[in-house]
Amino acid sequence: MSDTIEVDTSGLPVVHMSRRDILMGLAVGTVVPLTAGCTAHNPALGRSQLMLVSDAQIAQLSQQTWQQALQQERVSTNANHRRQVNRVGQRIATGSGMTQHDWEFVVLDNNQVNAWVLPNGKVAIYSGMLDVIDNDDHLATVIGHEAGHVAGRHAQERASQQMAAGVGAGLAAIALDQGGVDNAGMWAGVLGAGLTFGVLLPYSRRHEYEADRLGTDFMARANYRPSESLTFWNNMMARSNAGAPPAFLSTHPSDAQRVQALQSHIRSSGYA
User: Fold this and answer.
1) Which of 66, 147, 207, 221 could form a disulfide with 95, with the two C-beta atoms 3.0–4.6 Å apart?
2) Considering the chain, what percentage of its residues have pLDDT values greater than 90?
3) Regarding beta strands 4-9 and 115-117, do their DSSP bridges make them parallel or antiparallel, or are they unpaired?
4) 106 located within any domain
5) 86: burial class by Cβ within 10 Å (0-12, 13-18, 19+)?
6) Phi and psi at residue 243, to the nearest 5°
């Protein structure tokens, strides 16, 4: 095994970091001295992101997480649900322009009101979510939002931030082990694979705002009504106020400010 890792910074020069240097950096709670040049500009977000995990590593981890999730969860046999999710999902995928991913949309037989996505374009919608949405536009809101996390490279950024902060020494060990993947549960959480699989590590509020904005853009390009996303999120908040919050809001925190930000984006973009 090589003594260095090549960190793919998406167009920037490849950075070579030794295992010893990364582990020493993590031990003191920072690898900031090592991260100069380890940022990549994301045109979808209009900002730069810390990237210590390569696209190849994320792809490998995502595929492994997806296969394990399909083994542990029960895939729905409801033909109507499966057709609806695939129909809406394919339109959102096309509208996102992210043709580099092999998109896959699966309905999991679970009564939780939840959905999640992996960075390689694998999307899981729980049947409980389909029981509470009113139309395809609402489903497009959910899938568009999840696709927004993919375009925002939020899972990669979150993993990199944890590594840089020294919180995820186990993540560093995985990044250092190019011969295999351990701690799959931890990675499932980092990649955003829902509440029932892996460890829950919610996205930050900034990521949520970005996914909302990108999701409505994808909806518009796919000829769905972005204005319906406001109805969807208000319905989710109403369910939360009526009792236990839907699982979808546990992993995707929502509040009035978030809806206001989304409404402002819809208005400024001229979406109906």
Assistant:
1) 221
2) 47
3) unpaired
4) yes
5) middle
6) 170, -145
Pick the catalytic residue: 73, 104, 146, 208?
146
Single out the residue of 192, 203, 221 nearest to residue 121, CA to CA. Answer: 192
Residue 196, pLDDT score: 54
CA 126, 129, 133, 138 dihedral sign is negative
Classify residue 66: in a domain, yes or no: yes
Looking at residue 135, the DSSP 8-state letter turns out to be S
219: in domain: yes
Residue with tokens 């927004």, as numbered in its chain: 148
Question: CA-to-CA distance for 221 and 224, rounded, in angstroms?
Answer: 8
> Which is higher by pLDDT, 160 or 45?
45
Contact 68, 205 (CB under 8 A): no
User: How sure is the predictor about 119, in pLDDT bands with cuts at 50, 70 and 90?
Assistant: very high
Question: What pLDDT digit, counting tens, does each position of 193-207 carry?
Answer: 664 555 545 568 888
Number of domains in the chain: 1
3-state SS, residue 148? helix
CA distances from 156 to 9, 68, 117, 132 (A): 11, 20, 13, 31
DSSP assignment of 190-232: HHT--SSSS---PPPHHHHHHHHHHHHHHHHHTT--TTHHHHH
* In a domain? residue 244: yes
Question: In terms of residue numbers, what domain contains 213?
Answer: 60-152+203-269
Amino acid identity at 88: V
